[in-house]
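Quarterly update, task 2.4: magnesium ion-bound model.
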Amino acid sequence: MQAVRGMHDTLPGDAPGWRRLEHTVQSVLRSYCYREIRFPIIEKTELFSRSIGAGTDIVNKEMYTFQDRNGEFLTLRPEGTAGCVRALIQHGLIHSGPQKVWYQGPMFRHERPQKGRQRQFHQVGAEAFGIESPDIDAELILVCARIWNALGINDVCLELNSLGSYSARQHYRNLLIEYLSDHRDQLDSDSVRRLETNPLRILDSKNPEMQTLISGAPSLLDSIDDESAEHFSVLRGLLDANSVDYEINPRLVRGLDYYNRTVFEWITDRLGAQGTICAGGRYDDLVAQVGGKPTPGVGFAMGLERILELMEPGQEEQDTDTPRFYQVMAGAEAVKSGSLLAERLRDEMPGLKLMLHCGGGSFKSQLRKADKSGAEYALILGDEEVAKNTVQIKPLRKDSGQYEVSRDKLVDEITRLMGE
Ligand code: ATP
Ligand code: MG
């Protein structure tokens, strides 16, 4: 049996890198006092079609949608914002003052699998609700910058744009339709379809042959309303004050329909075509669309697989799963007594990485396994040691010889060895 195409296993050797990534991201988010929220992987299909937008790629062709046994249409979440908003509304949190939350977990999109593009992938997202002013947009961008810094990633750049208000976007939409209709012969088939359904999406096309046409399109920024322009200018001032570099990309639109005003992407050129590691923006109408009272929102989601690709593997990662001590036992009494001993050591020494040999065998074969495990010391227990109430300690990585320690001195001796 094989895993479903586009869905990957994380094997034990890769898990420490994932843990370092997740731990770093979480501790930065917590330092900004964002609180964790968890919500189901499956939601009603309607939640996504209403929020992400019926004309988007995600809703049109990427969702894993099925009918359950009651005939209800359900979808594996393709992103987190919709479920997050649904949960906050349902539990009455969204209208009880500003909320800053984060989530993480698997997302599902039926895309063509390639490097940096899976059908199950993982995101960490952060969202802030109830704040209209651009200080919160700036904070979210600063959170990202701090995360890259903490992970040692220094070759990402920030692209920034403002989509303006929804009504300004309607005006721009007309300008864009006019421009694209004049160049209809240069549109690919996707874009011809989108010209009717969702023309702004054309700006987001990944087709290299479309890029010249796109770069000649009218600029969104020229069409935005005065209030949004002011919002954008304050945001830029905050980023400048914090020495965050960015590039204005007037053709940056996002793959989801719910954005207005600020949109941004963090991009690297080290990952080929899948260069966006994080994307976000403002979505002031989303809460109302999902059924809550109008509440502004802004957030981002980062793709963990792509970020992992950019991280240098740290030595501590290799070491985190390696035992320091490997306990071997031969003889019925030794197995029983050894099990008690190992449990007592774990009680008394939290954090001790002790592998207990299971499965029997001769001392010789057990010690071979101890060596292979990467442990630094073997703790050896035979019936003779049980009778004497002692343990033999054998250094596995240095030449010094094996020695005997009485059980009541063992914790002290292990503490000394761990401090070496
Ligand atoms: P892309 O333009 O690469 O398709 P998107 O605009 O669809 O991305 P978002 O929905 O904004 O992406 O998701 C935020 C981030 O999640 C992306 O920047 C990317 O890092 C990651 N991501 C999105 N889709 C995938 C996928 N299929 N596989 C791996 N990572 C993904
Ligand atoms: Mg996409």
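Highlight for this quarter: The chain has two domains: 15-165+224-310, 322-415.
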